[in-house]
Amino acid sequence: MLNDVFKALSDPTRRKILDLLKEKDLTAGEISNHFNMSKPSISQHLKLLKNAQLVHDEKKGQYIFYSLNTTVFHDIVSWAFRFYEKK
């Protein structure tokens, strides 16, 4: 799982998507409004973020809303803090 997370986080567009979702849940269309790229490209970024379990999607009516999966972020921080623990 960590390999997928770090691969997803390596791209600046995906990091910006995560920053946007930090503020509120958004649809793919709302996310794409913040970028100068095609909607299929945004969909590919969202797919990678979902595969890394960094975002959830939920269908509400005719829209799919994306939100952060904070559990994975907690896992990453916990993993990183292990390097600071005293032996």
Automatic annotation (TrEMBL):
Keywords attached to this entry: DNA-binding, Transcription, Transcription regulation
Gene3D superfamilies: Winged helix-like DNA-binding domain superfamily/Winged helix DNA-binding domain (1.10.10.10)
GO molecular function: DNA binding; DNA-binding transcription factor activity
Alphabetized Pfam families for the sequence: HTH_5
Cross-referenced InterPro entries: ArsR-like_HTH, HTH_ArsR_DNA-bd_dom, HTH_MetalResp_TranReg, SdpR-like_repress, WH-like_DNA-bd_sf, WH_DNA-bd_sf
Domain HTH arsR-type span(s) in chain numbering: 1-87
SUPFAM superfamilies in alphabetical order: Winged helix' DNA-binding domain
Descriptive protein name: Transcriptional regulator
